Each structure stands twice: as C-alpha cells, then as structure tokens.
Amino acid sequence: MKRIEEDIKKRSFHSVYLLYGEEDYLIRLYRDKIKKAVLDGADEMNYSYFYGNAIDLAEVKSIADTLPFFQEYRVIVLEDTRFFKTANDFSDYLAGMPDTTILVFTEKEVDKRNKLYKYVKKNGLAVELNAMSIEETRIFIGRKLKNNGKVIRESTVNYFLEQVDNSLLNIDNELEKLIAYTNGREEITREDVDSICSVLVTGQIFKLMDAVAGKKKQEAVKLYHDLLELKESPMSILRLLVRNFNILLQIKSLPPKLSKQQIAQTIGIPPFSVGKYQMQCKNFSTAQLKEMLTMCVETEYNFKRGNIKEQIGVELLLVEFMQAS
What we know:
Blueprint: H1 2-10, E1 16-20, H2 24-39, E2 47-51, H3 57-64, E3 74-79, H4 90-94, E4 101-107, H5 115-123, E5 125-128, H6 134-147, E6 151-152, H7 154-163, H8 168-181, E7 187-188, H9 190-196, H10 200-213, H11 217-229, H12 234-253, H13 260-267, H14 274-281, H15 286-305, H16 310-321
Parallel strand pairs: 1-4, 1-5, 2-3, 3-4, 6-7
Helix pairs in contact: 6-8, 10-11, 10-12, 12-14, 12-15, 12-16, 15-16
C-alpha cells in the first residue's frame, strides 16, 4: 500500500497494478485512488472499465493502444477477470503496451504460478490486501475521524468495535453515520455509538435473507425499506448482502467438525454470530449462493454504468433472489 501511495505522490505509475485479497474495501479504495491520480482531475474520457471473465481482449488491447486525449495517461480497470487463475497470453501483449496506458486489475483470488501474475509481479505492482489487524483497524478509525474533524476516546473505539461487524466496509459505513450524526460537535461518545450504530442492521440482513429463503416477497421488500429508514444506503445494503453470501459460502466449504471459535478465526467473524450463519446455511445450496452473489456483482456493475437507479435496483434484486435455482 505504501508503494501505491508513493506512486501517486510522485506521479510515477507502474504500467499495470494487481489488487487482490480478502478485504474488498481496501481493494476498492486503492483502485479508486489510482484511477483518480492517473486521470488527475480530468473527466472520464480516458477511462475504461471491464468486468468478468468474458472480456473481449481485442477491445481491451485496442483501447490500450489508443493515445490518451489531452492527458498524460489513460487508465483501464479490469475486475474479476480470472486472468490470474487461467492460462492466457495477455502478458505477451503487456510487454509492448504503450507507456501512456495504466491497467488496474482487481481480483479475489490469484494463482501465483500463473504467467500473467509473474509478469505483473516482475514488471508492475501486485498488492495483496487482506483483513487488517485490530491495531491497524484502530489506526484506520482514528485517521478517518481526524480527517473529518472528530475525536474519540480509546475506550469508545473499543466499544464501537464490539458493536459492529469487523469488515472495513461496514466499519466505514458506520463511521460515516457517526460523522453525520455528530455534525457540529467534535467528540464522538459511547452514547453516539448506541444511538446510531445499531446492531439492527446486521439483524435485519439476517431477517432479509430468511425472507428470501422462504420466498416471502412482501416481507423481504419491507425489511429492505426498514433498512433504508435506518439510513443505510442501497449500495451499503448490497455490499452487506455480498458479505453475507461470502461468509455463508466459506462456512459451507469448511470441515464440519470445526468449533465455532475455529470458524470465527478462520473467516474473521465474531464467535457469537457463527451459529446464526450456520443456521442460515441450511436455507441455501452452494449453487444458489453463488448465483445470488453473481446477481449482486451484476447489479453493482449496472449501477456504475448508470443502467438502473440504486434503490429500485436492490429491490428488484431481492425479487430475483427468490427465483434463483
């Protein structure tokens, strides 16, 4: 991460970046930082986005070979391509790609024996972004609050972390709510955490998934609107659903004899929540979970492309879940 920050500060970019790992928040954060730095405040005329493993490589190469318009660089973001898990000759092209093009790959998993991975590792920058330690998370919280003119006691930080799910995405969402809630006041207190960082959000997601499993359309839509009333944005709800699906898939893949504590440590969730996830696993097959996860990714892609508004998009997605095989 420090090397990415140095590239941005010096405006001396690698031709290709690979961001991968478990922490979606950090991957998105550094993807967007690179994009913003490369475009340098200009519009998105020199920006292209591709998603999935069915990307037309000829189109990618054609865009990459095109000189940027009135700017120093153009940037191309490629997400979840699986190019780093399958055999391909894209690295042969990269060796001759124009210096004016910057590629940014974001992947959940990579095979470090893969030819393309080895090329990026040697000639670009490959960064693995996994879950932060508790101390790193505290620093993240302190820095974000300081940047927004807020202060918080260490005991309140510890209390806050006990109340919220420990993914950075969720922590960031909760901090945004705290910052807005305490507008006009500097210190964030334990009472503020109790007032705004309700555990109702996680509980509502569990109820929402139970309604989906029971194909209770009206109940699922009502729970969704309840979440909106709690000031959760449609995008944050979508990402919480994605996180829920990923946790369920991980639990299904683990050996059945593991203890709740072992499962919690392996997946990175609080031990007290393991039982709830295990119960919910019984409602969905692995195929259903994968299908619904794909639907979430496609919905987010449509948001980014402006094909559908976020609030109605998530509502339609919930209805589609109930039709998943």
